Amino acid sequence: MTSDSPDTSVTPVEHQNVPQAHQGLHDFLYSAADEHSATNAADPIMERTVTTPVAVQAWCDEAEGSKVAGVYAVLDRDRNPQFISYSRNVALSLRGHITQKGEESCAWMTVQPFRIPKRDAMEQLRDEWIAALPSPPPGNVDGTWARSVREAATQAMSPAEREAYEAKKLKLRRAMADGTLNKNVIQNEAEKRQDLAAAMNDDNWSAVVKEQTKETEAD
Fold it and tell me: Which of 106, 92, 190 is nearest to 148 (CA)?
């Protein structure tokens, strides 16, 4: 009697006659079927629309490690809408709002995630949410709420993180040959030349020695 069930004892063709030297590469390529599917599986929070307000902090905790893009609304403790916007990283924006405005104004939230975030589509949905209210939320009127991930991230930074951020921006400006920065460098070089000329004419080398000492200490 024959059976139609597959013979699990037979090694699949792709796993047969693999040279020992290539076994590691082979395992990487072919042993990942289940692993890849698990990795690419949809993250539930990135798919779930929240229409009934949930606590902002609880949602952010659940979104930890996920970059959820979408349109969101922030409500105060009395569940009155305070701000409606969109973001490519909603959790980061919400944390920035809490830092900027406090938990009293940022107590509850709703969100419509976008698996493929398109700015035009998110802007349209944001405008529809605002239009559906009796009046625009105060945060969409007074202009004091962070309106981008960058603004929100800056608001959420600690003093040390903000200092590191500013230092990184300065390095980027240098790398991009920032015109303003170059102007500052030119002015400094001009001042050095003036000090050197004064030293040669007046035989007063104190300013030059002081500048060289500062540069040595900085190194």
Answer: 92
